[in-house]
User: Fold this.
Amino acid sequence: MTERVARVSVRKQFWRGVWRALRRRPSRLIGLFIVLLFIFMAIAGSWFYPERLPYDAENIYAPISWEHPLSTDFEGVDVLALVITGTQGVLLVAGAAGLLTMLIGTAVGLYSGYNRGIGDSILMRIADFVLTIPGFPLLIVLTTTISLGSWWKMSLVLGLIGWGSLARAVRSQTLSLRERGFIEAARGLGLPTRHIVTKELLPNVAPFIATNLLMAVTGYIYAQVGLYFLGVLPIDTSNWGVMLNAAVFQSGALISPDALPYLLAPLGAILLLTLGVVLIVDALEEIFNPRLRES
Amino acid sequence: MIEGRGITKTFHTRGGMLASKTVTALRGVDFAIPRGGAVSFIGESGCGKTTLGRILAGLEPLEGGSLIIDNVDVSALKPKAREPYFRKIQLIHQDPYSALNPTRTIESTLRDPLRLRAAQTGRPESWVNEQTEHLLSLVGLNPGYVLPRYPHQLSGGMRQRVVIARALTVEPEVLVADEAVSMIDVSLRLGILALLRSLRETLGVSVLFITHDVATARYIGSDGELYVLYRGSVVERGAAETVLAGPVHPYTQCLLSAIPVLHGLEKPGPDRLVPNEPLDERKEPPGCLFEPRCPFATAACAQRPPQLGRLGDTIQDHACLYPATRHVVAVPAGHGH
Amino acid sequence: MTITMVKAPAVSISGLTVAYKTDAGELPAVSQVDLELAAGTITGLVGESGSGKSTLALSLLGAVQKPGRVTAGSVVVDGIGDMAKLAGEELRTVRGAKIGYVFQAAQNSLNPLKTVGKQLLDLGKAHKVRDLKGLLRHAKDLLDRMGLNADRVLDAYQHELSGGMRQRVGIMFALVLNAHVLVLDEPTTALDMITQANILQIVRDVHKEQGLTTLVVTHDVGVVAEVAHKIAVMYGGRIVEHGPVTQVLAEPRHPYTRGLIHAIPRLTGDISAAKALPGTPPTLGTIPKQGCVFRERCALRMEVCETVEPPAQRMLDGRTVACHAVKEGAA
Assistant:
């Protein structure tokens, strides 16, 4: 009974610490706000807009107004609506790929770093191999052989080619933690390996995982948008990359000033989301380190 | 009772492709730790004392020699079967800052090993709670204050007490304290030393005290045995007070001579001794290892290594061909000057 | 000979306060410190972690790092002026050339990628030494005196030197530009007993040969007892007692000094004579804002200690003690 109370209070303490770390610098709150805004757009976008966005051929590349704050595209579809409905696909793929990266990278890194030996050697060779794969060209090649149109296939491929650097980072952290007194003490007390890895090691590598993960996620956003932009993926969903592709290749936004908002809107969305992520990364070390959290 | 016979250990450091260096850390060390007793190992860094402690705690694999824990020759067992024996020997790390997990509260740090212990010994869950508080009180901490805190919120002295409490969760027979107070503030050290001393009485736990600070070794184990290690072998062994008051091995004499004298409070010992040259670990003399540095070495010393024994009718064991008692330790200055 | 006999300068610290900016405001790590380092003496500055001893040593060098700054007082070195007021190029020339600093033995203060000799030449160039050959000669001379093979050491990289050798190289670097004030920060921490004794002997010899005014900063009373003429005991940013080493050790007056000395186990005599000091030393944030900083741990605590900070009183025997309970003639 007392223990549950204690646990709850520890958890409460943790979240209070997170909030304090975020509040310490306004930039972090801005970052949090940006990321939450995009998540909200991803979730709520489909509630506000119909599946097929209304178009108005009479009103293409409309001047910026209250009705169309970010102008309209070549079919007269509201650009803001396109950005908002495009968020879901981008975040879903980046998030799912990130989750996969985190699971594989963390598991491999922890196992390699803690057990070392032959398993470590094999896994690290694989990680190095994965790291040397030129990700983006591979994706382009893959799209020609298998369809990467569905979000889960896309996530799977991104996640599978992206875990190498996270595994390396987690492993090197684990290697140095392994020699620390508290890990040796846990071994000396006879605590099971499962406990040592999950309760002693994992919380200490968490900031590295989180930082690497967020950076990987921004990478996945770029990759995915890039593929759509190059037009190697079927243009059947709303996506920021699709918008960029249409703006450049159909509307000639690079030469026609009328279509400029159509080009800048998705670019701005990508930059803003990246900025939000970067601003939050700054707070991660303080969130996971109890010493920095409270002071 | 824990006994070591002829413990050896060699480290192989891989240099370049061909340069493989071997460092001999222990060259056949015999020792015995009686139940509830105190044994001190003193020596300089690189003498093997830390390696010995780590071997005892099961953190460094056994190499040569045998280790007997409660009448079982652990060195004959399979690595997996050794674990329960090594659990009876708990190491207190030198650095109380890295010895506690910074991301966990003291409560979870203590509870996990206790819960494991409860499961192993068939004790109820309530024992875990009682024992957590009991152990903290035993090491002189206030459970209400310490339990919800993270390590960084405690002073070095408090942390070291938590480390000791954690070692006690598995009801060990021996605490191996390796330089356990060297990183703690001077005014707090004695409290930790006194705690280790009192644990010997209250719990009957023995203490193996490993240090370069001879005076702290005396404080912990003045009634126990003192071992002087030099480059992996024991050069002098005997009752702590005997060895300190009248060391017979020149190395022991040099080591004790180097301890600062609190001028004003103490006078230097009359026979203070300084080695001829600094330690050169690359030298592997065929005879006595201390021979190149020894002020009293003769040709015979360079012939073959002397054995630990009582040559010359000394009270303590030593490994020197020419044992001679010298008074090197500072003596209290009488008042009046 | 390149050694010119300069009279060792005296150092006089008065009313020095060094504060660090923290979330809780600007907190003093060193508060209103008066300390006189007489010319040609070795002073041992003893204190535990958080006592402010390292900050005090750095202010002697004008090297207090941000977020800290000297908020009041002066550090006057004979022939140089107030270190707290020097800045920029002027300060850089004074450091090294006039005041030598030897970093903690535990720290790696040498560049691991350059030989000792190369670093020596860098130092010479940085200080615009024209006669680099002379500098090299002087360095070799110093190393020889400290019992090292000078040529081998100058060709060596940091990792090829033992702890004791590095420390001697550190002393050489501090003195090679003819500094006459030497500050040693924890010179023997992490060194073995025999090496420590060796280094302390070298400090004594070098001090005498080079005509220095030396400050040894340490947590170890034994180190001070071995090398110093005078001891200054620091606690909570204050110097609580200052006087000749043998006198202070034989008859400590301040309750903290007494507690500290009694808390050191000895090699002879009754073991149970050693008594632990209750409580813990304060950190920057927990130093009391008013009254005596030691009162929480003090057996002689009185009402006045709560509110009035004890002033440093000069005793008849030349000692300075900052304690309400110590009255002249009581000893």
